[in-house]
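User: what does the whole thing look like in 3D?
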Amino acid sequence: CVGVGKCRRHEHGTMCPSYMVTREEKHSTRGRARLLWEMLNSSTLRKNGWRDESVKDALDLCLACKGCKADCPMNVDMATYKAEFLSHYYKHRLRPIHAYAFGLIHLWAQLAQFSPRLVNFVNHAPVTSGLVKKLIGVAAQRSMPMFASENFKTWFRRNGRARPPGAPGKNGRVVLWPDTFNNFFHPETAKAAVEVLEDAGFHVVVPDVDLCCGRPLYDYGMLDTAKRWLAQILTALRSEIEAGTPVIGLEPSCAAVFRDELTEIFPQNEQAIRLSQQTFTLAEFLKKFAPEYEPPKLARQALLHGHCHHKAIMKLDCDTELLERLGLDFEVLDSGCCGMAGAFGFEKNHYDVSVACGERVLLPEVRRAAKDTLIIADGFSCREQIRQLTDRQALHTAQVLEMAVNEGPRGPSGNLPEQKYVAYESRV
Ligand code: SF4
Ligand code: SF4
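Assistant: Here's the predicted 3D structure for the full assembly of 428 residues, as structure tokens:
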């Protein structure tokens, strides 16, 4: 950090959402960078080193949005520094319970598969939901995301999509990454992606083994576990990586793990470098591998909110190009961070900052939009923030394409066109 203070702007771009709402230096990228510098360089100012409470306090409101990595002229990467700091801070110490609840969500989601409806019931029944939220440190105002009654991978196997290895689609083979969020909570997104990719002539494969990129682990500094899970992925995907099969990440923060964290953790590993180069968002993939694919038209209005990691690491250019080719009349919101940022906005100590971030631009714009306007947001947490704090639900780009494939250029008639595509409330 050279101290020019671009991170102290009050509007536009993503950096720095916590400063934009608190207006306190210690919650800006620069404030945090300064404290970290003191910690590493001055044992007089910061006697406790990696256990320094003021550094931890300043990093606590960092949403790990990676806005600074893209917007700061020095590309200060506070999300990575935060993960590194927390990894040292909690070395040989127990973390707070919410870190295990959210950081290990992949494991809990697997356990919930024994009876997703029962888990949803417990998480939403008036008496038990309060207890669960209190136990794991979730804000009382939040509602817990609901598990789908059938996850995407089960649906994929059941529908005979799991074809023998090597079976070609006319345009080739692609790995659809079944991230924890779209697999267990929003399988309709991944199903839509399968429909669209098959419509574009690809043979979709989904890894058989149970894998997770570990995105939630970084927010809590659980770097040893994250490294182990990534190593498992490199082993499980070895043949696809070596064959050069493209991998599509539907959840932007998971695609960003493969594009960013993976090569930071394994900088010399050839497989890691290749996977990082072979990973694409859906829009990037269609542009690169199906340049001739003409998506069906969908002539209506839309608002696009880009996930922070998407904007910082992959950029939105391919997405806006795809939406233009669809014929949508859309606006890209200058909405910065939605405020949910993984589990950040679920935690009770972050609720107010989370809502304030969302209320800056995104939520008022969604509420102001005509009820037949499509709200597009690829990130799970962005969609949760919109669902929980407005009367609208956002669609993933894959679902917008599916809508065009299934319903023609006008899409569904009437208000709340997303309703048929999300079917979220019927899961208890
Ligand atoms: S963090 Fe980046 S934008 Fe902020 S003061 Fe430092 S160099 Fe400037
Ligand atoms: S990661 Fe986001 S919240 Fe954290 S310092 Fe950077 S811009 Fe601010």
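In plain terms: The beta strands are 173-177, 203-205, 247-249, 279-280, 301-305, 329-332, 374-377. The longest helix spans residues 223-236.
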